[in-house]
Amino acid sequence: MPTSKSPKQIKVHVDGCTPDTLELIKGRDTVIFIQSGPKAPMTVHVDNKALFGTTTCTAAATAAEATVYSPSVPGNYTIGLTAADAKKGGGPGTVQVLCLGPTTALGVGSTGTIKVNM
């Protein structure tokens, strides 16, 4: 399955991250973390390493410098400025991430043809 054309961005601020929620599809979407201001942290924490293969992600000053993260395992995750924020499972300044597995539309074959049952 092809990846999306450009990564989804999570902005890292001094007091938290935005957006509040993010939906990702494994195998299609990617994510980058961008610092929002000179005092924004350079790292964020994920409550479970199953999402990106790590519990600590790096935030960059610009998109060109950012590390691209690909979701690994479908599930519900929380991203926060500290490991404690991420482990709380939500709250102000955290990002709730829903990672979905790739899906195939009902009745559509792998060749892209539509199957009609009569």
Commentary on this structure:
The protein is mostly beta strands and 118 residues long. 5% of the residues lie in helices and 32% in strands. The chain has one helix at 83-88; strands spanning 8-13, 16-18, 21-25, 31-35, 43-46, 56-58, 75-80, 95-100. The strands form two sheets. The protein has a five-stranded mixed beta sheet. β1 and β2 (16-18) form a beta hairpin. The two termini are 30 Å apart. Residues 107-116 have low confidence and may be disordered.
Tell me the layout of helices and strands.
Elements: E1 8-13, E2 16-18, E3 21-25, E4 31-35, E5 43-46, E6 56-58, E7 75-80, H1 83-88, E8 95-100
Parallel strand pairs: 1-4, 3-8
Antiparallel strand pairs: 1-2, 5-6, 5-7, 7-8
- Note the run of SSEs as H and E: EEEEEEEHE
Structural class: mainly beta
Widest beta sheet: strand line-up: 3-8-7-5-6
Number of strands: 8
Shape: globular
Note the gap between the termini.
Answer: 30 Å
Largest sheet data: 5 strands, mixed
Helix content class:
under 10%
Average pLDDT value?
A: 86
What is the CA-based Rg, rounded?
Answer: 16 Å
Count of runs of 4 or more consecutive helical residues = 1
Low-confidence stretches: 107-116
Strand content: 25-35%
